[in-house]
Amino acid sequence: MARTFAYARVSTAGQTTENQVREIEAAGFKVDRRRIVTETVSGSSSIDQRPGFAKLLDRLERDDVLIVTKMDRLGRNAIDVAQTVAKLGDMGVRVHCLALGGVDLTSAAGKMTMGVINAVAQFERDLLIERTNSGLARAKAEGTKLGRKATLEPDQRAAVRDALEAGASVSEVARRYDTSRQTILRVRDAVAG
């Protein structure tokens, strides 16, 4: 027999999942309180980093129904959400999202909706990459030096090379110049390369 579960998530301890639970009930879904899984975890965390959702996965069985108020409850981005929905679909779990009119995301219509959302998300990522590359090219053409400022000045880099050639350890030189071992190794390798 199919059971209905609800998953509600908030990002910070100052927030409550109660509004999400009420929204699910107002949409006509009857969910036993023992089957409502709530957690406080950042939306930037992938679904596999959410302990409450992991426990929910252990409880879900074929033909069960999972209700969420919004797609972002299921993942940090469209790809993450799509992977989560596919995983649940493979388990035989139907996933309903209230923000999309309660559509079952594992149904044909739901999969089409997910496809459109994923296409839009990919389009947005591609536009962001284009804008970033365009901005970098413009800055470079204007003579702007890209990247972060060097940790050590040229005379300090020469002194680092001298100290290393004189037998000083990388750690010792890093302490002397109040920098990381990695910075000293980059200076050393720039000469060797």
List its salient traits:
193 residues; alpha/beta; Rossmann fold; 2 domains; 5-stranded mixed β-sheet; 5 strands; 50% helix; 11% strand; elongated
What would a concise description of this structure say?
The protein has 193 residues and is of the alpha/beta class. The protein is 50% helix and 11% strand.
Number of domains: 2
Beta fraction = 5-15%
What's the total helix number? 7
Named at the architecture level, the CATH assignment of the largest domain is: 3-Layer(aba) Sandwich
Structure summary, number of beta strands: 5
Helical proportion, percent range = 40-55%
Shape: elongated
Q: What is the spatial order of strands in the main beta sheet?
A: 2-1-3-4-5
Helix/strand order = EHEHEHEEHHHH
The CATH homologous superfamily of the largest domain is termed Resolvase, N-terminal catalytic domain
CATH C-level label of the largest domain = Alpha Beta
Sheet with most strands = 5 strands, mixed
Mean pLDDT reading: 89
Structure characterization notes:
- It is a single chain.
- This protein is α/β, with parallel strands linked by helices and 193 residues long.
- It folds into two domains: 4-107, 3-Layer(aba) Sandwich (Rossmann fold); 154-192.
- 50% of the residues lie in helices and 11% in strands.
- The protein has seven helices and five strands.
- It has helices at residues 18-26, 51-59, 78-90, 108-141, 154-165, 170-176, 181-192; strands spanning 4-10, 36-40, 65-68, 94-97, 103-104.
- The protein has a five-stranded mixed sheet with strand order 2-1-3-4-5, with helices on both faces.
- The longest helix has 34 residues, at 108-141.
- The model has no long low-confidence stretch (mean pLDDT 89).
